[in-house]
């Protein structure tokens, strides 16, 4: 059962797994208001990791960094200037910085510092993590799915982790916000 603070305060791993399992349903719900999200999410979650795994030396291309920014902005707050700015990074600079950042891992702080040299890439974008099991990336996916589901499809969460009383409170709060 989730704590009063929502998923972040929940210590039940089964609850976190159930929220992670809702990820694609939440992407679909969010995609109804943000066109192209489902395709970008599939690219980010499945195609990009496969492309990286197939490279002798891991790196991103300039096109992949541009698409990564598009994915990020489609999921969250849209900032068109960031999309334009990230596109100004040259292919050589992107490959050099991303190759070095991958080589610096597992020193995440050093890798983020390296990636932050690219225009429009700050710590939030630079720290996108693609490892297996429970990683910062998996936690981020769950917290994003939880937050978006609370706004767009709270019924998905009602029987998931919350007790009936808490689920009702969350649904009423969401409905109240929408009527404002």
Automatic annotation (TrEMBL):
Species in which this protein is naturally found: Alligator mississippiensis
UniProt superkingdom: Eukaryota
An example Gene Ontology CC term for this record: collagen trimer
Full protein name: Collagen alpha-1(I) chain-like
UniProt cross-references to PANTHER family, sorted A to Z: AMUN, ISOFORM A
């Amino acid at each position: 059962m989730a704590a009063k603070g929502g998923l972040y305060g929940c210590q039940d791993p089964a609850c976190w797994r159930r929220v992670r399992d809702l990820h694609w349903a939440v992407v679909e719900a969010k995609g109804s208001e943000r066109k192209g999200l489902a395709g970008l999410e599939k690219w980010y979650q499945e195609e990009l990791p496969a492309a990286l795994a197939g490279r002798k030396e891991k790196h991103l291309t300039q096109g992949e960094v541009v698409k990564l920014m598009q994915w990020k902005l489609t999921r969250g707050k849209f900032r068109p200037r960031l999309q334009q700015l990230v596109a100004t990074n040259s292919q050589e600079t992107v490959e050099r910085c991303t190759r070095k950042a991958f080589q610096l891992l597992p020193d995440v702080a050093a890798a983020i510092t390296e990636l932050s040299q690219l225009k429009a890439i700050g710590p939030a974008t630079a720290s996108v993590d693609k490892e297996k099991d429970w990683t910062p990336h998996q936690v981020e996916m769950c917290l994003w799915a939880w937050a978006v589901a609370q706004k767009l499809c709270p019924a998905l969460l009602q029987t998931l982790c919350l007790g009936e009383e808490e689920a009702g409170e969350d649904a009423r709060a969401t409905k109240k916000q929408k009527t404002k």
